[in-house]
Structures are given as structure tokens and as C-alpha cells.
Design goal:
Strand order of the largest sheet of chain A: 1-10-4-7
InterPro entries (chains A, B): cNMP-bd_dom (IPR000595), cNMP-bd_dom_sf (IPR018490), Env_Response_Regulators (IPR050397), HTH_CRP (IPR012318), RmlC-like_jellyroll (IPR014710), WH_DNA-bd_sf (IPR036390)
Oligomer: homodimer
GO molecular function (chains A, B): DNA binding; DNA-binding transcription factor activity
Largest sheet of chain A: 4 strands, antiparallel
Distance between the termini of chain A: 56 Å
Strand content of chain A: 15-25%
Pfam families (chains A, B): cNMP_binding, HTH_Crp_2
Structural class of chain A: alpha+beta
Helix content of chain A: 25-40%
Protein name (chains A, B): Crp/Fnr family transcriptional regulator
CATH topology of the largest domain in chain A: Jelly Rolls
CATH architecture of the largest domain in chain A: Sandwich
Number of helices of chain A: 7
Keywords (chains A, B): DNA-binding, Transcription, Transcription regulation
Amino acid sequence: MDKFYPIILNSRLFQSLSIQELPDLLKIAQPQQRTYAAGQRIWQAGEQVTSLGLVCAGRVQIIKENPQGDRMIIATIDPADLFGEAYLYAGAKTLPVSVDAVSEATVLFFEPEALLEVAWMPEGKRIIRNLLQILSQKSLLLNKKVAILSQRKTADKVLVYLKTEAKRQQTNPLKIPYNRQEMADYLGVERSALSAALSDMKQAGLLDYHKNEFTLHPFQ
Amino acid sequence: MDKFYPIILNSRLFQSLSIQELPDLLKIAQPQQRTYAAGQRIWQAGEQVTSLGLVCAGRVQIIKENPQGDRMIIATIDPADLFGEAYLYAGAKTLPVSVDAVSEATVLFFEPEALLEVAWMPEGKRIIRNLLQILSQKSLLLNKKVAILSQRKTADKVLVYLKTEAKRQQTNPLKIPYNRQEMADYLGVERSALSAALSDMKQAGLLDYHKNEFTLHPFQ
DNA sequence: TCCTTTCCGTTGGAAATCCAACCGCAAAAA
DNA sequence: TTTTTGCGGTTGGATTTCCAACGGAAAGGA
């Protein structure tokens, strides 16, 4: 497991810890290390899980499958990223999504009881705090998304999204991490409707944009 | 503060603790007790807060105000309920909503550093675990809401909502805690559109309902 | 260079929702 | 009892989005 120490320290769960503190903490937390072949299923939708996954090598994806068999990629998890964090302490809840290894992947699984034990160590506090921060920021992110999706009209979704992004990034003009299709997916609308709304708003002088760089104009 | 002990023990943060353990834990966590007059503002949208509120007496409301001055009630917080839990450990983030006391209200405010100190006590572990559970379940709840709001058509929103509710409640027929208007607000559609979709689906044999009691029919 | 691919804006008809209004029923109030 | 109020279903025109398709511009590959 030693060779993954740099990756582990890079994760949001272990950030701001030193490599000297890590072995003792891992001895307490006792994560299970598992390796999966490319394409292998890690978690199946419908299972009840209460563990947190830390990807040490390879790449895994969160997949939503509907009864018709369509596969939709919800998220891609790279080394040092986490998954399942909301299920660790929520009690046994059924997963609405599946998790697949897209390449050969090594994952560390943490269990709720053992992970809490690290709080007895002075440096363990840091881990608990990191975990609380991860969950809090996840809630705020989802809250933001709900605020966007609650808007009935495409133009309003765009404005709510760009305004919160501008506040978060503290820049104007601002760059967003999506192309048009991805932005439309995030806002929950068709790409054509998004493009149409954007050109209407540019016409109306509300904003300006080129590609993924947007400028919000003040006043209404 | 003693007279609020039963309320505090009833909160999700302190649940499954005994009244004997409480005084020592509160001495460490050092919450600030504040009392507000009816109508008084507790937090103003735009402020940066990093504390958790526990309502001990009275009632407070989460309010969303738009530039035009319309007030929208996001949530009503009764004694033993919490607010601000997602802001405690998220770093200083600006509030998108305001919090008002609707009646004379007494609130305990916990700060992030002091609250973490309770983890040194054996019973303090329970509090940390409760907090992790609160944040996790909040994320799952928001996830569910995003799944609903992401549906483009009213009928699909209804189906996603009822199916997850049926799974959660483990009952069919199931009762929901909303009337039509509240259900429409939750799903992000007009009440008329919801009523129309519901009667279409009843016509099609997908489900049955009277008032707020719904029966899902299997097969498609 | 040419060809292929990707991205983005546009368009038009079909479909769905919004919005305001009206109605009937049932529970609550007088 | 009668009256009032709240809730839920329905309706129709205006508005908006969806959906599929097309075309141009830019980037990448052969």
C-alpha cells in the first residue's frame, strides 16, 4: 500500500497531512484494498453500501442505467478522488447508481466505525474535519444545482448558473468547465434551447460570450 | 440553559445521548445562546457564516428574497431542529438565503472548532457521528431532488418521486406529506400540469390515487 | 493540402408546459 | 342549517421547450 501514499495524501480526505503521520492513521482506519479488472463492476445499483472508496490507481465511473439498458455516465473518478462518501454514515441505503472500473483500478475502502477511530489521534482530527468539509461542500453544490433546476425557463437557469459561478470564481468575464452540450446537460435543457437562449440574451445585452467564456453585464 | 436540555437531547445532533452526559459536552462545545424577538432577522443573505443553529424555543424560517422583494419560505425550523449545518465546516461561504425568527426564539450557535473538541470525550464520538449522518442524509435528500428535477416531463417527475418514496417508505399504497400545490412546488411544475399528468396516468393505469394517497401499479 | 470530426448556432413543426380562470366537492365556520 | 373557504380537476390560448435536422467554422489527422 506504501506506493499509494502520495496519492492518498493528495485526496481531499487526507489533505494537509504529512507522510509521516499516514501509516499510523491507516493502521487504525484499516481500509481494505481491492483491485479490479478493466470493465469490472465495483458496486451494483440496488446494493446497500456503507463504505467510502478512494481510487488509488486507474479510473472508475459512476453509471446510471435505466430499465431499457441505456448507460449514462454520472461522474468519472480519477486517482485521489473519492466515491460513496454520502453513503458511509447515512445508514444502509440502496445505491441508485452503479460503479464500474473503466481501466484496471485499485481502490481503498473505508468502513464507518474504523474510520471514526482515527479521531482518537491528534492528527486524526484533521481527517474528521476533512470529511465534514467534503460532505458540507457536497451539500452546497447540490443546493446550487437544485436552485438552477428549479428555474422553469432556460434563460433563468442560465442566469442563476452564471451568477453563482461569477460569485464563486470572483471573476468577470468567467470561464466555465463545460462545452455547450455539457452545459445544457448540467442545466437540464436541450443544447438547441440553450444556444437559442444564449443568443437571445446576448441580443438583449444581458451578457456576452465566446465559446466557454462568459461576461455578465450589470443592470437587470 | 438547563431548561432546554430535553429539547437539545431531542435534536438530531445530540440524539441517543443521556441527560447526564450533556453538561460536560456542552461545556466543551461552548454554544452561544441568543434570543430573538418575533420578526427579528437572525442571518442576512450575503453574510458569511460558519456556525450551526439549534432552535431551543420558538420558530424560525429560512427565507429566499429576490430583488423585487418577494419573500419565499424555504423551510420552517421548529424546536430541536437545526439550520446552517452545511455551512459549519464548508469554509466561509456566503448565504443565499436569510433566516428570520417568526416568533420569539432562542437559538444555540455552535462553532466549528469548539464542536470538534467534543471528539476527545467518549460520548463526543456520538455527536460527531450524528453530524456526519445529518450531512450525509442531507446530501442523499438533495440527490433525490436533483434526480426528480432533472426529468423534463411532469409525468416522469411524478414517477421518479413516487418510486423513490415507495422504496423509502416500503409501503404501497403510500401517503405523501404534501397537498397538490406543495407537491407541484416540490416537483418544480404548475399545479394544473401536475393534476393533468396525474389523471392521464390514472387513465393509463399506471397508478391510482385519492388525495395524498398513491398506489403504484407494476409493469411499465 | 484535403478530409474528417467536433462544436455551435439556427430553424421549424410537434409536443409540453405555463398561466389564468372556472367549476364542483367537502370540510370548516358561522 | 347556510355560508365560507380550501383543495383539486379541467380547460384553452399563449408561451416555451423538445426534437431532428442542417450548415458553417474551427480543429485535428492523413
